[in-house]
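Hey team,

Sharing the U6 snRNA phosphodiesterase run so nobody has to redo it. Sequence (282 residues) first:
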Amino acid sequence: MIVNYSSSSSEDETENTSKDDSSPLRKRGKLDTENSISEPLDHGSVKRKAVKSAHSAPRLPLPDSVKEMFRESEEQWIDKSEAHGGRLRSFQHERGNWATCVFCPYDPEEAFLELLNEMMVLAASHGIPLTLSEEFHLSLSKTVVLRHHWIQPFIQSIRTGLTQFKKFFCLADKLKVYSNAEKTRTFLGMEISTGKTPLLELIKIVDETMTEFNLSTFYKDPSFHISLAWCVGDHVEALKKTCLSELQSLVDAHEDGPFYIKLNCTELRCKSGNKVFLFPLQ
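Structure output:
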């Protein structure tokens, strides 16, 4: 915070009050003299003394608390990719902006985690070191940026749109390779094969809110999937050519029969920054 103190100089004040007897201040001084014999006659000298005293007095130092008050808002965020596995942000972090996405969560079964471990070992043997996803979910929006004061109205809009939406069921069983728009990360996912119709209906509802807030809507021809693992860089073709068919064989030849993800869509979630909002379905 910058506190700006300003006053006219004593020289300016003297010039304004002594050179022009027709000024409003001089006229008021004469009128007051005529009406009151107790009023001091030399208004200019009194003002000169007051101004001189104000200029000669030392200014009080600005408190440290005021100096530090807005320092945080001036600091620039430096994104360190090594802090999160070498990943690069799709958009620059700015204070007050909240990365936001809508999704359906998946709580993995133990058999699913065991299968994933086998898949990671196989991919590594082909020189592709995959990292397991931190959480598993089915995305229903792109990741967009919300200002903090938009969050509550945005959430309320989504909640209103989902008021009458019914629970449904999805299956995923085919592996597919994806990348982000910037080609800085490659993903191994399992594509949804059953339950696409209600998902498309959900996208319409979410996209209405996105349009309302002038944000990016979902893909025109979406491939609904659950991301299983990822690696840094563009390895789409390498993953497809070297081991995708072998990875699919692990899924199809699972000891309990062909493995598939069973996703009970009983609620949607929206994550905005570090906040998570729940939307139970009917």
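The chain has a mean pLDDT of 79.

Ping me if you want the raw files.
A.
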